[in-house]
Design brief:
Strand content: under 5%
Number of domains: 1
Structural class: mainly alpha
Shape: globular
Order of helices and strands: HHHHHHEEHHHHHHHHH
Helix content: 55-70%
Largest sheet: 2 strands, antiparallel
Strand order of the largest sheet: 1-2
Oligomer: single chain
Length: 362
């Protein structure tokens, strides 16, 4: 909004040229999201506490200490994240950019699915929300719309090929498989973040580091000189996503203030599903889907631990882990919750650095 209103006036007042720069607006979006979180967070938590008499329903088959320590903590704090992401993006980004429109619509749509899921859990007073089949159907439908929109914006085959990191100009043409691939990336990332959201601050930390990494990736992908120099696919207009990623970083930092151990509020599905979808969509637009899997390695491992656990139990009747997702395995081994969280964050930072290095090692 500020970009669209003020940039046309820059020819009369040169100071407004600042709003032409993605770097300046990315910083503005980050700080705006952080400020909004601090201002609205306490009020929202109090409101959620009043509306939710028992807080988030705790899984009866989860670690028993969760029932004792986490009962009564309100959920749906992801509404704060969505607000702190959407408002700064609307303020600082170029709203005529189709990628901004797409990523905002996808994030809010997945947030709506998560809101519905959380609402059913609270009103029914158990940990089961909407059916897995219904959730997957809605998520897949949105992911297919994203893929179709990207293909419709594609002047050639820019969004029909999978870019391989560490190699210059190496891409695999996906053809019609691009559409199921979009479901895998967007829906997979959304549910992976959801599975990771099991301890205070565990999911929001890797989300923060992944968003910060893709702020850089989006900027260089949308800058023709940097993209050509680094040997990565150039996507005209993708640089504007740096503002969205900056808002995500600020929103994540602001939410972490309230979600750090011991949490005052949980993000719920309204937050985790939306954040994962946002990351997946940015990964698709910037054509760094494999790098997303590297940087979001914590999310990948959490998801694989569930798949391995279920497959092992069904095939041989034995469990590989004491409990899945894997963070519960470490809990049952006796690791303190803050130790698990911080160690997962450290791994996430390392993975983020590896992801950034892929831009140069080609």
């Amino acid at each position: 909004m500020l970009y669209n209103l003020l940039v046309p006036l820059s020819e009369y007042w040169s100071a407004l040229n600042l709003f032409k720069y993605i770097t300046f607006r990315s910083i503005g979006a980050t700080l705006t999201a952080l400020l909004l979180s601090f201002l609205i967070g306490p009020w929202l938590i109090r409101s959620l506490q009043k509306l939710q008499s028992i807080g988030q329903p705790i899984r009866s088959d989860g670690p028993q200490r969760h029932i004792l320590e986490k009962s009564g903590t309100p959920t749906m704090g992801g509404t704060l994240i969505l607000l702190a992401m959407a408002v700064p993006t609307l303020l600082w980004a170029n709203l005529t950019n189709p990628f901004i429109q797409m990523v905002l619509a996808t994030t809010l749509s997945f947030g709506a699915i998560g809101f519905w899921d959380d609402y059913r859990k609270i009103t029914r007073r158990n940990s089961k929300g909407i059916s897995a089949r219904m959730r997957f159907f809605l998520q897949s439908l949105i992911a297919l719309l994203v893929a179709y929109t990207l293909k419709s914006l594609d002047p050639g085959n820019l969004f029909g090929a999978l870019s391989i990191p560490f190699f210059k100009n190496l891409a695999v043409d996906l053809g019609l498989f691009y559409f199921p691939f979009a479901i895998l990336v967007i829906v997979g990332t959304s549910n992976a973040v959801n599975l990771t959201d099991g301890l205070d601050g565990l999911a929001i930390g890797p989300t923060l580091f992944t968003a910060a990494t893709f702020l850089i990736i989006a900027y260089v992908t949308g800058h023709s000189h940097f993209a050509n120099y680094l040997g990565i696919p150039y996507v005209a207009g993708a640089g504007e996503l740096a503002i969205f990623c900056g808002a995500m970083v600020g929103a994540a930092l602001g939410f972490l203030w309230f979600n750090t151990y011991p949490a005052q509020v949980f993000m719920g599905d309204v937050g985790s599903l939306a954040l994962g979808a946002a990351l997946g969509t940015v990964g698709m637009i910037t054509r760094h889907e494999i790098v997303l899997a590297i940087v979001g390695g914590i999310f990948v491992v959490e998801t694989l631990s569930v798949i391995v656990q279920v497959a092992s139990f069904k095939l041989i009747g034995k469990r590989v882990f004491r409990m899945a997702p894997i963070h519960h395995h470490f809990e049952l081994k006796g690791w303190a919750e803050p130790k698990i969280i911080v160690r997962f964050w450290i791994i996430s930072i390392i993975l983020a650095l590896i992801g950034i290095s892929t831009l140069k090692i080609r």
